[in-house]
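Priority: medium. Attachment 1 of 2:
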């Protein structure tokens, strides 16, 4: 087993297992949570946090240290990426409510301390992505959150959860903006893979669960619905026209990127976590 900068790599007969178990234990010990009661999701379903929270303030330095530690852990733990991004919004003036939400992530880690990503041997080098968005999920500025994840084989290898830079006017627009972010990343990945000798001869599929956003990416006749959207988000149409990217519909219950955009119910969370390739069975 190799150990470097908190990342453990275990070479197995049928693949490679990557984890940060030791680093996660250090975080729990640092914040005196090594004996806490485990919980089954990193963020409570339906939770709504706000910068205008009136609860008692907590030490910003302590809070930033916790969030920073969790941030590094997302290198191998995509399952906590959304929750970590959520609590990151409140580092300037954290309250006990925000700190409680951050400590919930530690409680989740306590029960999944040995989880990581297992990459099995495969000859499947086809790049496939999933893109999703919530709509107006931030209570303070009403901005949406974009999320995407890319696969080669059965396990995710790159992912993102980030608040959008603009306020969108509909779920269609929010999904369209999220899809554009994922397309930009897909084009970069295609270029990188080509340099590594794994050229993607076919268009890269991006799976989206909003049919209106898919139609908007393919057909300029929707001009009246999209003329207010910044031109930088129209790049997706060019990529579709050039057959670098194809945008396909996926049912919401099969949308893997959902885990990066909103709090999920326990059953949905566990399902998507498994689809990401996360496991403790090695």
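Attachment 2 of 2:
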């Amino acid at each position: 087993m190799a150990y470097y900068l908190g990342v453990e790599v275990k070479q197995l007969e049928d693949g490679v297992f990557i984890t940060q178990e030791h680093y996660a234990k250090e975080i729990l010990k640092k914040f005196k949570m090594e004996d806490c009661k485990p919980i089954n999701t990193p963020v409570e379903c339906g939770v709504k946090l706000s910068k205008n929270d009136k609860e008692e303030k907590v030490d910003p330095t302590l809070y930033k240290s916790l969030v920073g530690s969790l941030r590094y852990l997302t290198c191998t733990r995509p399952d906590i990426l959304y929750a970590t991004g959520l609590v990151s919004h409140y580092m300037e003036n954290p309250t006990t409510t925000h700190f409680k939400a951050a400590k919930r992530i530690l409680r989740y880690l306590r029960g999944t301390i040995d989880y990581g990503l297992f990459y099995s041997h495969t000859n499947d080098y086809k790049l496939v992505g999933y893109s999703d968005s919530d709509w107006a999920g931030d209570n303070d500025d009403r901005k949406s959150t974009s999320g995407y994840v890319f696969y080669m084989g059965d396990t995710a290898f790159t992912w993102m959860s980030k608040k959008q830079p603009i306020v969108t006017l509909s779920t269609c627009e929010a999904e369209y903006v999220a899809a554009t972010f994922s397309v930009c990343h897909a084009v970069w990945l295609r270029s990188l893979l080509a340099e590594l000798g794994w050229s993607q001869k076919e268009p890269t599929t991006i799976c989206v669960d909003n049919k209106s956003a898919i139609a908007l990416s393919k057909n300029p006749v929707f001009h009246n619905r999209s003329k207010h959207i910044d031109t930088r988000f129209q790049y997706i149409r060019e990529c579709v026209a050039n057959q670098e990217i194809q945008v396909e519909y996926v049912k919401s219950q099969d949308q893997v990127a959902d885990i990066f955009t909103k709090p999920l119910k326990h059953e949905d969370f566990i399902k998507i976590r498994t689809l990401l390739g996360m496991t403790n069975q090695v």
